[in-house]
Amino acid sequence: MHFDIEGKVALVTGANRGIGKAIVTSLLAANVTKVYAAVRSLDSAMSLVNEYGDRVVPVHLDLAKPETIAAAAVSASDVDLVINNAGILHKESPLSVEAVHALTDEININVFGLIYMAQAFSPVLAGKGGGAFVQINSAASLRCRSDYTTYSASKAAAYAVTQGLREKLKPQGTHVLSVHPGPIATDMAGVTGLVNDAEPPSQVADSIIEALRNGDFHAFPDAYSKRIAQYYQAFAENVVEADLIKVS
Prior knowledge:
- The chain is an alpha/beta fold.
- Helices cover 47% and strands 13% of the residues.
- A seven-stranded parallel β-sheet has the order 3-2-1-4-5-6-7, sandwiched between helices.
- Strand 1 (9-13), helix 1 (18-29) and strand 2 form a beta-alpha-beta unit.
């Protein structure tokens, strides 16, 4: 399904910085009518309001608090496009004494938060004719680095949920997009120590707009993720995106 963002209303979680802020900027430059900046602290989105005026509407949303997600879906009942960008990362290997705690925390935000977002907003999108739901996953969902095993595990789970959403939301006309960035120049890149290899967050934003227009399910925005895509794309097309239930 192709989705043209021009003239649409969007909601972006984690909109106050990094990839989320770049997504807001790119959406507005591409003529989205309005963006709900979904953030934990409304004050953190004021710089966007100061720059773009009433085209940006801050809304309180915390992925760890399902009640705020449900409330946001009521406040932003006119959205055509939902981009779930917010997430957390812990630097833990599977042998770390903190591994279970870290994974529990990451699953709570990166996976359960995604599920709550989909459950709250899919009826809203259905009411707007389908719209689009975008999940910012990670190249880490496809390739685990041992020091970030718990993060990779949570993003692999989020990717599985995104695949399930693609199938379940298709009948209502909702296009689902899974985005898999590699190292991007954000605060998270500083945690991973990959700052030297990081690319601008605007590349993620631009790849989302392009993938939606093309009707793609996957987006690989940067050089690192594109290298993975060279080998993964055939599997994605023939397994992930294929209907394997049908027998020829």
